[in-house]
Design brief:
alpha/beta; TIM Barrel; Immunoglobulin-like; 18 helices; globular
């Protein structure tokens, strides 16, 4: 099958064998990788491909069970069940770099690779840690997806192509190891509570300084609480008894955590299951996962050490930070500064980080760049507005409202990774099919193509969720949106009708001729060929009040040249007239049919077909 690779990708591929040798030499000398195209870009220039290794490609079947004996409830491998390991690994990801780069991606963000507790959940509710978020050992890769050498080979191979690697990291919690005697029967190792967890107990009714039982016995005398001014080693030296809300203990069958300091129960909040709002959002267990006391100086120092080591050893290019909103801003202020300084000290000047703040209000998102000091956050507000425009037919002014809030971000909105769907919420295609079950394949394709144009040509860093380019259609969120790229054995995946193809997820889905793959590759090339679409200031030129129409202007930061992006989410063609730079009279078409000239100085009229877009560049 012929691979379609953009000019930008071909440039990065040039001289790959020589660059690979240079990478190996740099690693031997413990020097940072320095490759043209890798280090001379900033975050605005990236196109990110977000991938879950277990569901991408199985390059080494020998690690499918992670070296664990027994059945699927021991090792977690069952390729017929959507909630268990399927066999994808780092070796497979490395083997498919041509495919990812051919799409136009310049950076790969992969779900956590750390060693996980293979299986969790009570009887009948078991599932596996194929996703990587149930960590037991923060210092090594999970044996199901490979060894240190496999990760090193992947990073080096990506760097040799000029592609960056973003690790998905966690500081908020570990696997579900700690149990509470009030809710857990140690003789049967089962939860007493029918919901499987202890309800949250707040600090007001269960302070750090008394036992959380009927006795109310004073404990931890001298501890002043965890307000920012009290987050000192001296204060936390008085926090020695972890029974302030529940009585935590570690069942005999539980794994030992690494590094060793993670086995100290006083380093966890131990307050029960989060309600997802108020105090519990910061102090509650995350769906049963043990919530670390990130206010504790030992936890902060320990996490800094863990992730500095990964940067030092593998020279990765950045971090996506999981569950950032469930950790206090004071933690991120110090952690973020330490990571950036450490990376810069190693010569990784382009190191980047973006936090997951699962909220849709720009003001709430901006808090984590302003107060918490993170360089960027995932743009959930963009996802929500794009979904409204594409799926629900919201008018263009809904996107204009989003963009007017861009000044809230202290680091600028241009560095925010934008996306249409992900592994937690589901795919945009799934939202479309749920809202419009009778929609034709042609209309589905047109709307998905239009959504990608909105993402690629507006401000922000476009982030592609693996499989979207193959027309995958999720049935829902979470496990229902984590299909295989290699042939799947999951019936719930394989009965889905994909967009733009007669294939199913039971087939190999690395089709570089797929119309969505081709459309995204074309958009990526246009974006990378024009600085205005990566770094240019954005202006809304027209936003439909009742219609799903939107016109954006992007201005080249060096030349001042204007590029117009007109998007039509209506089912009929739209003729749109709007103001432009008065110096622009003549126009080139970058995509679609643009007029050759303005109808008058300072004004342009374009006709955009139904469910389509045009991109026009001033000459």
């Amino acid at each position: 099958m012929k691979s379609q690779i953009s000019r930008f990708s071909r440039a990065l591929l040039a001289g790959t064998s020589l660059l690979a040798a240079s990478c190996a030499a740099a690693q031997d000398e413990a020097e940072p990788v320095s490759i043209a195209g890798l280090t001379d870009r900033d975050a605005r220039d990236e196109i990110i491909y977000f991938v879950m290794p277990d569901r991408f490609e199985n390059g080494d079947p020998s690690n499918d069970t992670g070296g664990i004996a027994g059945d699927r409830l021991d090792h977690g491998f069952d390729p017929t069940h959507r909630g268990f390991y399927h066999g994808g690994d780092l070796a497979g990801l490395t083997q498919r770099l041509d495919y990812i780069q051919g799409l136009g991606a310049t950076a790969i963000w992969l779900t956590p690779i750390f060693q996980n507790q293979a299986v969790q959940g009570g009887p009948g509710q078991e599932s596996a840690a194929y996703h990587g978020y149930w960590i037991t050992d923060f210092t090594r890769p999970d044996a199901h997806i490979g060894e240190r050498e496999d990760f090193r080979a992947f990073v080096d191979a990506a760097h040799a192509r000029g592609m960056r690697v973003y690790m998905d990291i966690i500081t908020n919690h570990t696997a579900d190891v700690i149990a509470y005697r009030e809710c857990h029967d140690p003789s049967s190792d089962l939860y007493i509570d029918p919901q499987g967890q202890c309800p949250y107990r707040d600090k007001g009714n269960y302070p750090w300084t008394t036992r959380g039982d009927a006795s109310g016995e004073p404990i931890n005398e001298g501890f002043r609480g965890d307000d920012p001014q009290n987050q000192t080693a001296e204060n936390y030296a008085n926090l020695t008894d972890p029974r302030w809300a529940y009585t935590p203990y570690v069942p005999e069958t539980a794994p030992t955590l690494h590094p060793e300091w993670l086995n100290d129960p006083t380093l966890y909040h131990n307050r029960g299951e989060s309600f997802w709002y108020g105090e519990s959002a910061l102090y509650g267990d995350f769906s049963g996962l043990d919530d670390l006391n990130t206010e504790h100086p030992r936890v902060l120092e320990g996490m800094i050490d863990i992730y500095k080591d990964w940067i030092t050893e593998f020279r990765v290019d950045g971090f996506r930070i999981d569950t950032a909103r469930h950790v206090q801003p004071e933690f991120w202020q110090r952690f973020s500064a330490e990571m950036m300084d450490h990376a810069h000290g190693l010569g990784i000047e382009h190191f980047h980080m973006f936090g997951e703040v699962y909220m849709f209000d720009p003001a709430q998102l901006a808090r984590y760049t302003n107060e918490a000091g993170l360089p960027a956050v995932l743009d959930f507000a963009f996802q929500s507005a794009a979904r409204g425009f594409i799926v629900d037919g919201y008018p263009g002014e809904s996107l204009e409202t989003l963009f007017t809030a861009d000044s809230a971000y202290s680091t600028g909105a241009h560095v925010l990774p934008t996306f249409l769907g992900n592994h937690d919420m589901g795919r945009l295609s799934g939202f479309l099919r749920q809202a419009h079950p009778e929609m034709s394949d042609a209309d589905m394709f047109a709307r998905l193509r239009l959504a990608n144009a909105l993402m690629f040509f507006s401000r922000g860093t476009p982030t592609i969720y693996y499989g979207d380019e193959q027309g995958f259609v999720s049935d829902g969120h979470d496990q229902q949106a984590r299909e295989n790229m290699f042939p799947s054995q999951v019936d719930e995946y394989n009965d889905n009708d994909l967009v733009g193809t007669v294939a199913s997820t039971a087939d190999d889905n690395f089709d570089t001729e797929h119309p969505l793959y081709q459309a995204i590759a074309e958009m990526a090339e246009i974006r990378q060929s024009h600085a205005a679409l990566r770094r240019g200031e954005q202006r809304v030129r027209l936003a439909g009040h009742e219609e799903s129409t939107l016109v954006l202007s992007r201005t080249d930061p060096e030349t001042g040249k204007e590029i117009i992006i007109a998007l039509n989410g209506e089912s009929e063609a739209a003729t749109l007239s709007f103001a432009v730079d008065g110096a622009a009279m003549d126009w080139n078409s970058l995509s679609g049919d643009c007029p050759a000239a303005s109808r008058a100085r300072g004004a342009l009229t374009v006709t955009v077909p139904a469910l389509d877009f045009v991109v026009c560049e001033a000459r």
